[in-house]
User: Fold this.
Amino acid sequence: MSKFPKDFLWGGATAANQYEGAYNVGGKGLSIQDVTPKGGIPAKIGDLNPIITELPTADNLKLEGIDFYHRYKEDIALFAEMGFKVFRTSIAWSRIFPNGDELEPNEEGLQFYDNVFDELAKYGIEPLVTLSHYETPLHLARKYNGWINRDLIAFYERYVRTVFNRYKDKVKYWLTFNEINSVLHAPFMSGGISTPMEELSKQDLYQAVHHELVASALATKVGHEINPNFKIGCMVLAMPAYPMTPKPEDVLAAREFENQNYLFSDIHARGKYPAYIQRFFKENGIKIDFAPGDKELLAENTVDFISFSYYMSIVQAHDPENYHSGRGNLLGGISNPYLESSEWGWQVDPIGLRLVLNNLYDRYQLPLFIVENGLGAKDVLVDGIDGPTVNDDYRIDYLKKHLQQVGEALEDGVELLGYTTWGCIDLVSASTAEMSKRYGFIYVDRHDDGSGTLKRYKKKSFYWYKDVIESNGESLYD
Ligand code: BG6
Assistant:
């Protein structure tokens, strides 16, 4: 008997700005991603301020991505061959509203996603659509300073109304903002906020957070009005924090770190600001400006499910300066001496995933959805029996261990809708904007210098995941 429910949604995840390419085709406007330099958002992600330019950066790999825009039929056929039940992608806001603040949408952009959803439907693959995945229209960042400005709520509402109406019979599962909590650490990438991090006040940052939370609740409201069968979820970057020692001060530090993330799921699931944030606001002189109706909107439009990404756990201490800090983690943290790291310094912790699932389910009793998990690694293409392939046993090992922990969480009683691995087909990485950090079951021949044929090759993990899906997870225990 499989531990996984029989209608479990197995699949993979992507985002428009990292794989579509065609950045200026079909009437698409520029997004903030189109002006980010190649190779680089690295550690100082929040410091990046590319708003100085309004031109796409020539060596930016995201401009062409992996050209899903022109190859979606081939790619979807490969997903179907693996047996995907669900495919997570995002709609590029600037393909629908090129500047973000127009009154009328771009029909060619809308048609493109019709084509994608129709192609998925041919194979019975359910789309799971992120409405905003780190790809705010550039114009909204330049003219309005992103989500700091309340006007963005109205622009976002117009955009989500448009796509909800258009795809109301084609898409059931929606996510309002990708990793909404990451705006605290990457305000430009996540919130289109062009003020450099060192000049950004906490007041402005948390006001921007408020605007996004209100927009998310509004999207949930509008979506349910348009189609009551819609399932609309929030999406958070999940990262359990362990105390460095059992010292109560360290335990408290870990808890305070986790509260920064819980803030977002708490408001989405419970419809109000939690008590613990009041002290933080008070001590930091933050006063959130609530417009009339905000409070009710948040209270009355909580989400149908909680989705999250999970890559790693981190360690917190009250005196972090005394420890070696982890490399590569967007959210910082101290290295955990008990865990190994990926080539990019992300600490691998399958049990952390079981903890996240239990913590979130216990906290909200809402269905959960793992919409990102995976290993970014350097792959080497080699000759195989059926042509070029990658022997990515390390990826299989990572995914298998994580999925086994998902199985444990299911036995613990957690309600889980599905699991989509990140970057099921190789795509451009978000934090480092490079091709060589690969997550896929499908290798794409494109390299950091922009060279490559864009041909697709099945990796060993392609066949492994196909078996996992076919057996509804039973093959994880062979
Ligand atoms: C998540 C993002 O943070 O992590 C994705 O939602 C991203 O967009 C993924 O690609 C992996 O990060 P990276 O930097 O390795 O691409």
Observations:
- Residues 153 and 215 are 5 Å apart (CA to CA).
